Amino acid sequence: MKQFFSILATYLVIGCAQGSTAASAQIPPILVDQFGYLPALDKIAVIKDPKVGFDSRRSFSPGETYAVINLSTGKPVYKGQPSVWKNGKTDKSSGDRVWHFDFSNVRTPGRYVVRDMGRKVDSYPFDISGTVYTPVLKAAFKTLYLQRAGFEKTPQFAGPWADKASHLGRGQDPQARLFNRLDDPSTERDLRGGWYDAGDYNKYTSWTANYVTWLLGAYLENPNVWTDDFDIPESGNGTPDILDEVKWGLDWLERMQNPDGAMLSVMSLGGGSPPSSAKAPSKYGPPNSSATVTAAGAFAIAARVYRAAGFEVEAKRYAARADKAWKWFEANPNVKFYNNDPRSNSEGLAAGQQEVEADRFAKKVLISAIQMKALRGDKYFDRVIERQYNQINPMQANTPDGFEGMMAFDLLFHANQPATPRKFAARIKRDYDAKVLNAYNGWPAIQNKEDPYGAFVDGYWWGSNSTKARRGAIYTQAIVGGVGRLSQRDYLNAASAYIHYIHGVNPLNKVYLSNMRRYGAENSVTQFYHEWFQDGTVWDEVGVSKYGPAPGFLVGGPNEGYARDECCKTVCGGYGAKMCKIPVKSPPAGQPPAKSYADFNEGWPINSWEVTENSNSYQISYIRLLSKFAR
Questions:
Q1: Number of domain units in the chain
Q2: Any alpha helices (H) in 282-357, and if so which ranges?
Q3: Is there a contact between 509 and 124 (Cβ–Cβ < 8 Å)?
Q4: In 3-state terms, what secondary structure has residue 127?
């Protein structure tokens, strides 16, 4: 839809971003979005005085006068006083005492710093521009290209992160076999393609289907930003690059579908750095209901989007696959397969767990039924949707925190379809307004400034940056869905604060994207857990290894539950025993929740993946939010 673009255009003033200045030796206590700000939206610098945590010795008391300095002239363009947060209270999540300096009146495009005039301390530099986030969006989106399995990354598009096509050798993706029948050639399948799901190279059907649905949702909500120049191999072919990238995921989903419509559940791929060095065989898991119903929804939305984009042949095929997947699911609603789990004798097959508890599975059914209704228009799906809605009560204060957190956005889409029963559509909007948008952790937390850094969440767990992105999207989706009692500008400001958090307005003054110096970030992630960019390789750490990791990957973020492997408490064998003798890193351990983070990438048993691993889930949640503010 073009609605969101036309709304946001009101708030944009075009300007040209300039190059980055040299990084400060000391991380400044004045925090800004290190990329910058849109001209007409709020701009609030955060000044921190750490009281609890690893940085508590860096005490800072702000001066009375702050100024915004134009770096091209060296002169102040705005002066004011910082205001203390909560009467000088120390924030429990961060351990910081905080002040705010509001410089929203500065709208002229340019490059600036915020300066404490009395203490002679500057923030990192930043831009004000109507296009300030466009290069960042392109870098973040391009990580999906780098996550492609079985696709050569040439120097033209990948630079020093070039690599040959991975997992195409003997016994790998084109000759993958069923995990428990590896000696049976009759199980051999061509399952090449798809995306590495996270920092390892495994591929999951349910999760890939979600990514397809989320990316196509982002495209529909603001199509104007999704141009054909994101610097991937398909750029310039006349098709928006997001549709080219999504098609890469769809091609793999098609290979994962059996002739009867069932979807194979998961693939386990070998590791190595770079990915093309992986030699282990590829294994897959059998069909299950979870993967199949989720894929039905992905194929359904793909059929609609690609038909509208002129891809009639592909759209017809996706629609047929959606129908077959849904029919198989209805005939087989309780087929379970637990990957990497003794319940299915599948230990070592990929990681994580694709099978889900009953309520989460019901959410997948709800999302897919919404997409099937939009594709087919059959009133039967109205009944399925309402039944699922009544069963799981999907609009709750914690809905955006979970993996199916974007379910609420699918429901808003459904509520705005002309064929949706009006009474039910009104109920969806009413519930979103009352139970999500205006729940205690929604707008009231923003209005009451519960988080001094402007991006309130209920807690800092594994993948907290993804939660931040989905919480910010509550407000942009309110605009898209036509919900809410406040102005669109209020909601844009609330959402943008979560972007600012990821871009550096957080207790660590850290941009939680990897290697973003060339894009203007003075303090971005230097290393993170990824099989490719692992410890000791030329892609290990910015400023230490030859190249550092590729730019634009969003890491999991602060995790107050981080811990080493349990075996460190007793006896880890061999390599593990050696690693366990290394002193525990603090941070991330032993810190206030929002400071439970550090850049590190050691694997087992140090388990850095609990804090720094990337995930396509995190990435796409962030991309979907950021795309509302780019042009």
A1: 1
A2: 289-308, 312-331
A3: yes
A4: strand
Q: Is the dihedral of CA 23, 28, 34, 37 positive or negative?
A: negative
- Identify residue 85 by its one-letter amino acid code: W
- Number of other residues whose CB lies within 10 A of the CB of residue 425: 18
- Taking 60 as the threshold, does the pLDDT of residue 1 lie above it? no
Residues 6+ apart with CB under 8 A from 393: none
- pLDDT-derived band of residue 4, with 50, 70 and 90 as boundaries? low
At residue 554, what is the residue type? L
Which residue's structure tokens are 């759209």? 315
**Paired sense of beta strands 44-50 and 83-84, if any:** unpaired
Which residue has tokens 């466009």? 134
Q: What is the pLDDT of residues 269-317, one digit of tens each?
A: 999 999 999 999 999 999 999 999 999 999 999 999 999 999 999 999 9
Rounded to an integer, what distance in angstroms lies between the CA atom of residue 270 and that of residue 288?
A: 23
What residues pair up with 70 in beta bridges, in sequence order? 75, 112
Instruction: Calculate the dihedral angle through the C-alpha atoms of 95, 101, 102, 107, rounding to the nearest 10 degrees.
Output: -120
Element (H, E) at 177: strand 177-178
In whole angstroms, what is the distance from residue 383 CA to residue 333 CA? 17
CB 348 within 8 A of CB 268: yes
Q: How far apart are CA 242 and CA 623, in angstroms?
A: 11
Q: Which of 371, 254, 265 is nearest to 313 (CA)?
A: 254
**Would you call 614 helix, strand, or coil by DSSP?**
strand
With respect to residue 558, please indicate whether it lies within any of the assigned structural domains. Answer: no
Rounded CA Rg of the chain? 24
Q: What are phi and psi of 67, to 5 degrees?
A: -140, 150
Of 425, 367, 417, nearest in space to 392 by CA: 367
Neighbour count for residue 119 (Cβ, 10 Å): 15
- Domain-embedded: residue 541: no
Give the total residue count for the chain: 631
CA separation, residue 282 to residues 182, 192, 295, 482, 626 (Å): 10, 10, 21, 46, 35
| Closest C-alpha among 74, 75, 116, 117 to residue 99 | 116
Peptide bond before 39: cis, by omega within 30 degrees of 0? Answer: no
Here the tokens at position 470 are 């989905």
Cβ-contact 370, 410 below 8 angstroms: yes
**Which residues does residue 69 pair with via DSSP β-bridges, in sequence order?**
76, 113
Q: H or E stretch including 163?
A: none
Tell me the two tokens of residue 508. 């660590």
* pTM: predicted TM-score of the whole model, two decimal places: 0.96
69: CB partners within 8 A, 6+ apart: 75, 76, 77, 112, 113, 114, 115, 122
Q: Which residue has the tokens 């495209």?
A: 219
What is the spatial distance between Cα 408 and Cα 436, in angstroms, rounded to a whole number? Answer: 9
Tell me how far apart the alpha carbons of residues 289 and 336 are, in angstroms, rounded to a whole number. Answer: 6
Between CA 42 and CA 449 the distance in angstroms is: 14
Asked if residue 62 belongs to a domain, the reply is yes
CATH code: domain of residue 35:
2.60.40.10
Which residue segment(s) compose the domain that 72 sits in? 3-128
Do 344 and 338 form a contact (C-beta atoms < 8 A)?
A: yes
Residue 293 C-alpha from the chain's centroid: 23
pLDDT tens digits, 354-400: 777 777 899 999 999 999 999 999 999 999 999 999 999 999 999 99
| Angstrom distance (rounded) from CA 224 to CA 540 | 36
